Amino acid sequence: MGLIVIRTIVVFVVLLIIMRLMGKRQIGEMQPYEFVITLIIAEIACIPMTDASIPLSYGIMSVLTIYFLHQVVCLIDLAVPQAKTLLGGSPSVVINKNGIDATQLKKNNLDVSDLIESMRGAGYFSLDDVDYALYESNGNFSALAKPKPENSAKPTSLPVLLICEGKFDPKNLLLTGKGKEYFLEKLRGQGFDELKKVLVMTVDGDGKVYAQKKGEKYKVFSLDWQERLW
Asked: Of the N and C termini of the chain, which has fewer Cβ atoms inside 10 Å?
């Protein structure tokens, strides 16, 4: 029976470490250790019920061990501030006054398209709609909206991701009806000399562009489109 307790503890610790290393993409509305506990309990509760050769007491002992570990982790989490960051991680600010923080995105195994998807889910459709955005330690997305003048015009079309990490999106490029050289020329006019250094570029149907070079502050400018393209 003691061996079962030890094995359960080892599995718990290993899974917790793996979940912390995998970043916020894998977590949703739970702390990493809560997610691990959910995974383990779901598994160990089923095995004794479906396999008659395994004594039911083994499954009960494993569940009790997980419960004990949960209580210990909760106590440590409340008593030691440093342990909270170690066990659950800390919020990651992925958008600041300068634009997207690519380092924080990669740290959490995310990319620009994941960020844009999260923003749309929160009701923001343009990268310059927010001053700050972050992923909480449990993976939830939060954002601080940028103040806008009362009479500011509302967007009339959805921005599309045209360039991500120095590469064009062929599907969205086709949507614009323009060629790569057209956009490269416009970017060069704004100081974006090399495609591979462009972290992100979005454009909407009215020609509004959000572009950011890696490691630099973003720029917003307009293209000379005579009419809305989509």
From this structure: N
Q: Say if CB 180 and CB 198 are below 8 A apart.
A: no
What's the predicted TM-score (pTM) here? 0.74
Alpha helices in 122-194 (DSSP H): 170-176, 180-189
Supply the pLDDT for residue 106. 92
CA distance 145 to 42: 39
Task: State whether the Cα torsion 96-100-101-107 is positive or negative.
Answer: positive
Q: Which of 191, 150, 148, 165 is nearest to 100 (CA)?
A: 165
Q: Are 203 and 176 in contact (CB under 8 A)?
A: yes
Please list the residues that pair with 201 across neighbouring strands: 163, 211
For residue 154, report the phi and psi dihedrals to the nearest 5 degrees.
-85, 145
* β-pairing verdict for 167-168 and 198-203: unpaired
44 token code pair: 């160990």
Write out residues in the chain with pLDDT < 70, as ranges: 1, 11, 15, 18-32, 45, 48-52, 151-153
Q: Which residues of 181-204 are buried (b: 16+ CB within 10 A; e: fewer)?
A: eebbebbeeeebeebeebbbbbbb
Q: How far apart are CA 99 and CA 7, in angstroms?
A: 46
